[in-house]
Amino acid sequence: MNNRYFVYVLCFALLNLGSPPVAQAELVTTLQAAAATTRTQDLATVNAALAREEVRAQFEALGVEPAQIELRVAALTDAELRTLAGQMGDMPAGADALAVIGIVFLVLLILEAVGVIDVFKKFP
Amino acid sequence: MTAPGPVRAVLAIGAALAIAGCAVRGPVLAPATASAGPARVELEATPFFPQEKYQCGPAALATVLSAAGADVTADALVPEVYLPGRQGSLQPELVAATRRHDRVPYLLPPTLDALLATLDGGSPVLVLQKLGAGPVPGWHYAVLVGYDASSDQFVLRSGTERRKEMSAAHFLATWDRAERWALVALPPGTLPPAPDFARYMEAAAGLEAVGRLDAAGLAYEAAARAWPAESLPQIALANLAYARGDLAAAERGFHAAVRLNPGDAAAHNNRAEVLRALGCPTLARREIEVARALAAGGPLSATVEATALAIAAYQNGDAAGCPPD
């Protein structure tokens, strides 16, 4: 039972990582001010510090050189970190136009070989 | 004369695609360029980096960064933006790498007019295309370097092709399927043609957020010149002054922002905080009350309340030389 409460306390502490102390005077940052006046506010449901950790871990899992991970994470804004933390696996990863053409060609070739289509036959 | 079943199916699919693709296809570029801009543009001096396997992200990014005067190559960008596990590059990382090379990553409004105006203005445009479909989406980055209304074609640096011509309708379809994502890399201090204020400020503020302060400062100064009636560029410059400890300059900047837009909660909050730091609690209290009323219930209310608490805790009287209002 005690263990369970300990875990709750730890979770709570973790969620508060990176949140500023309540009584500290603050400037509204330019990014905040820009977002506040323009678009729907990023609701910041995911703590930026947690998102940063998550992105770091995913970079590592996806094969980024360890020496590059910090540099790449450091150039992302909080909003971008939250986006990446949630969907790095499904975001569009712009790659190779040739691969697509290759795969389409391969599919046509297989269909031809098994006799479903007959587009590569020479005219008599 | 009847074709066997499977062949008929393929023919039917082909006919359907032909109708979907061609039936409504008139010229695209001629009407768009009729009222404004030249009928033909090609940025021939744009460098070309033929892509290695899967690495169109680094290649396309090197193209637009070099065109904006940065000293980079596609090979040098691979460790910065390529994601081996995805065999490609992600959009936020191209934006981030643009910042790392001190260029403003301006995301274009999702319109054909914005593409054409940017090319007219001399900047190549990095675009995302979706060339495939279904399980083979075929995400691809390329760089628009020109168009020709008479042949209704775009010209791209794409993959291993230095000069790829693509029909405007076909290109726009692939761009549309990629949610019309288009990035321009701007040298700090220059604005895109027909700039969108909110998009430009967000791009500039991203530079500041990741610590590229000199580049951000140049971008903010350009914005302050281009949009003299907006308070946000003044706030941005004053935030930079505050960060380097120049409280007097910060106060002047926030004061200017408050005068430009008396309804700007951020301007009032930030001026209040600087006045507190300068030892002027009387005026700071007045400013923070205005900020509180403006920010109530909005996204900035937590920040404003924190500033109010700090001002309430300030014990001393006004220092010498506080502004009169």
Written description of the protein model:
The complex is a heterodimer of chains A (about 120) and B (about 325). Chain A is mainly α and about 120 residues long. Chain A is built from six helices and no strands. Chain A has two domains: about 1-95, no CATH class; about 95-125. Chain A has helices at about 1-15, 30-35, 50-60, 65-75, 80-85, 95-115. The termini of chain A are far apart. Mean pLDDT of chain A is about 75; it is low at about 10-25. Chain B has two domains: about 25-185, Alpha-Beta Complex (Cathepsin B, Chain A); about 230-310, Tetratricopeptide repeat domain (Serine Threonine Protein Phosphatase 5, Tetratricopeptide repeat, Alpha Horseshoe), CATH 1.25.40.10. Chain B is elongated, with a radius of gyration of 25 Å. Mean pLDDT of chain B is about 90; it is low at about 15-25. Chains A and B meet through helix 2, helix 4, helix 5 and helix 6 of A and helix 1, helix 3, helix 5, strand 4 and helix 8 of B.
Write the layout of secondary structure elements.
The complex is a heterodimer of chains A (124) and B (325).
Chain A: H1 2-15, H2 30-37, H3 48-61, H4 66-74, H5 78-87, H6 97-113
Helix pairs in contact in A: 3-4, 3-5
Chain B: H1 5-22, H2 29-34, E1 40-42, H3 56-67, H4 74-81, H5 91-100, E2 104-107, H6 112-120, E3 125-130, E4 139-148, E5 153-158, E6 161-167, H7 168-177, E7 182-186, H8 197-209, H9 213-226, H10 232-243, H11 247-260, H12 265-277, H13 281-295, H14 301-312
Antiparallel strand pairs in B: 1-4, 2-7, 3-4, 3-7, 4-5, 5-6
Helix pairs in contact in B: 3-4, 8-9, 9-10, 10-11, 10-12, 11-12, 12-13, 12-14, 13-14
